[in-house]
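JOB MANIFEST
job_type = single_chain_structure
chain_count = 1
residues = 448
[input]
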Amino acid sequence: MTETTHQQSPRSGDGDRSPEYRLAQNALQGLRQDLFHDPFAYRPLGPRPTTGPLLRRLPPRMRMAAERLPHAVVGAIALLTLLIGAVSGSEPGGDTRALLTGLLCALPVVATLTRPVGAFWLSIAVSPVTALLNGGGADWPWMPGAFVSHLTVLVVVALRTRPRTAVWMWAVTAAYALLSDVFIGGSYYYTNGGPMLVTSAFALLVVCLWHVRHTAQQEVTAQQTVTAQERSRRTLLEERTTIARELHDVVAHHMSVVAIQAEAAPYRVENPPEELERAFATIRENAVAALTELRRILGVVRAEDYEAPDAPQPTLADLDALLVNVRDAGLTVEKVVTGAVRELPQGVELSAYRIVQEALSNSLRHAPGASARVEIGYVLGGLGVRVVNGPMPEPSLVKPSPGAGHGITGMRERVAMLDGEMTAGPTEDGGYEVAVFLPVAAVNEGDA
């Protein structure tokens, strides 16, 4: 085998650039995208979500007011910057330049509500103007009102954008402070570029940490939602698999009985007609074919390690043994049977037994120490099952162990399989009730 090596010619463009060059290029692209691409675009601040645990408990009017709380806070800070800018002017409170200085300081703060990135550039532009309007001031390059205004703009814009934008805004602010100190700041008594950079760095760091935490919470919430959906879907599939296995056992038993009886029936009649023998042979062939097809189709839902139970599937006749086991586990339970007790289809009996079993298991888990009542009603159109437990006694030595609601899902699947009806929910006294009706078609004597 011959190994051939192909040498690739260097491509023109970014392929032959150094990693440092590509890093710098990506950084400049990020700067252009965050601060220079359509900076004055209209991006209004939306209402605050009121889905939090505390805000959900507020009255409707207070929740509506809480939606506009960020707007009110920004408006209050804008008013504060106006007052600080006007008071710190060359002639506090009595000069047109002082009032103009206050308005210029408040303008960028108000602009953060609709044009956040544009408000940052407006704050940078307003800072030297307010300093020149008050030539006798001792602060450079930010007058007191401009200092508060620019710091507020940095925080609000960082909250409304992303951490990378906050980094670029701080870098531009540092560049402006440096250039102002080098070229213009010599005639001023004091420069506050250092305090601005330190204070804004801490503020923006807090905002960036909030962004990281908020993003992590959103990802965790999304993952938990996906996990819960997957768990519910998996539980549903497992329950359907269990039902399919039990259905296979029930139907396979009856089809086997049909095949055996169809084969033995001609021998019970002396000199049976040929037509009768052919009819029973056809019945047996169809029963065997149906049984083979049923095993083939339902066999795909059996796990590789699944073993069919040796014992017969439980029925309502086995409820007493179930109640004995439940009483031994600490649940006080009584059984009431109404109506004429009769044998029902095996699928109905099995589903009713499993529903009672799951309902009593939920009572043991969720309301330890409570009492329960099982009602079985035989009516003309089917079977009614009702399992109700009382509230958990207080105080209780045994604490409840909440589940994920998969038992209720399994019950509903069984009821839906039989075209029945089911209701489940808490009772008025603090207990829980599961009520099920499973229809059973009446069998006429002529159809037997």
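[summary]
The first helix runs from residue 19 to 36.
Residues 369 and 394 are 9 Å apart (CA to CA).
exit_status = 0
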